[in-house]
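FAQ
Q: What does a multi-component entry look like?
A: The components come first, one per line:
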Amino acid sequence: MLNNNSHKASINSEVFPICLRTSNLEDSSSLQTYLSIGGYEQIQRILKDKISPEKLIEEIKISGLRGRGGAGFPTGIKWSFIPNDSDGTKYIVCNSDEGEPGTFKDREIIKKNPHQLIEGMIIAAYIMGAQVGYNYIHGEIWEEYESFEKALAEAKKANFLGKSICGLGFDFELYAFHGYGAYICGEETALIESIEGKKGQPRFKPPFPATYGIYGRPTNVNNTETYATIPWIIQNGGESFANIGVENSGGTKIFSVSGHVERPGNYEIPMGMPFKTLLELSGGVWKGRKLKAVIPGGPSTPVLPAAEIMKTTLDYDGLKNSGSSVGAGSLIVMDETTCMVSTLKRLSYFFYEESCGQCTPCREGTGWVYRVIKRIVDGKGKPEDIDLLLDVSKKISGRTICALGDAAAVPVLSFIKHFKDEFKYFIKNGKSMMDANS
Amino acid sequence: MLTEITRKKIDGELKKFPIDQKQSAIIAALQIIQTENGFLTDDLIALAADYLDMPKIAAMEVATFYNMFELKSAGKYKISVCTNISCALREADDIVCHLRKKLNINFNEVTKDSKFSLKESECMGACGGAPLMTINNHKMYEHLTPQKVDQILEELD
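Then the predicted structure of the entire assembly, as tokens:
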């Protein structure tokens, strides 16, 4: 049924573009360009040959693809949760509400290769029997929202969307939806509330979106990168994808590298690449400085000191064994001059500002954490503040409806765990250890 | 009353949703109105709510929840600078200091001639281009330096 081309990539030194495979082509985002690399052929083949959703799900399970938005849940399993016996409308949603600091890969997919995302969503809709889809795009990347609208119009005109796609009897409508500045809408149930025209406040689960999503209908929410990977997997077979990566971490992943490197940007690489290699690909630490620490998957994943991350491989098990996590693949690199106390202050302000206010431990706790760190940075810290920060953070964690509360606690706990001396120094001397010589 | 152009734009958004789910278009409707007016007033929010057959308070909740909405008069050009971690590491503070000095205003203030206002923003999802800012929400400028900021502002009338 599926081609079994073998794809080999060295996990030691190369980028391997799948989601970003049109990036280096002229006019990379156009329909013409996507068609030139075999775009929209998979959905046509599926519809023509009437390949069953079960077979396709099986292929995705073999690929080892896991949700690329941060949770890492196996995509094939997730898609089998959508009830296939329900009447009425089912929805699929693409979560392009990238607001986790350091994450900017979905923007690149929308900007460079929107049609692959669209084809991935059509295939997903076919598998889950959905008739309508939305791509929820982060409000601040407005130009990408507009360019995605253009890509949708192109696809619709060519009959890849709408009634009876390519005359093959399958109907699917896809729309762009923009946020307008709310990190919390990256949480899938907050995103659903937002699509319903409400404040983005997360819902209790269960019921899960698979049974009760938009307007109470079965809804599947996945990240942009997850959908954009699907056409390649269907084209080349699940095994080919799995073979690119390592055990338990199939395929490629886009890592967004930001902060103190010479060449910040997105790098789509085979899972399992040593961090050291990616650091070299991104030009190394800027200004010839030494590496101090890296947040590997966005602030909701624990920070790792240089010594630890330099021996880590970038895959689910590698980062887990190092005490952190892949998250959304958002590597924030910090050089030796970085003050960890001030950096934590900024992160804590972010969670305080973005807490939706629904759950008391998060709403009040994030404020407490921010104010205590601020007082340390203002030179008014007390020796007991470190324990206070740990205590408040632990009391937020696990006591909220959604994961924002847990996420807010992560940087506090991990920054203090690895850089406690800097916090002690700041409290004792009223200034940063980084300013010790000034 | 909403202008015909505004209504037409909102109608375009309404096509994305089931006919009995007009409220889904509220974020888009408020965005359209704000883009035309510069900021949202209680009256404008009420008009949007009426147009979408939803309670005014529900529209107000949306307007106050999403932080790209402006509920007070903003400058002709609203400059939002991201100061979150990836931008901070790439010296966003220098950009903020430069803008404060150049425009002689702080965050959430408007210049005397009403031309500029300044806002601190959370992560915009484009950290590879840090430091960065947007003008009037919809145009992003990346890889900023104080010199580049000067150039950008000079080109605005």
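Q: Is there any commentary attached?
A: Sometimes. For this entry: The radius of gyration of chain A is 22 Å.
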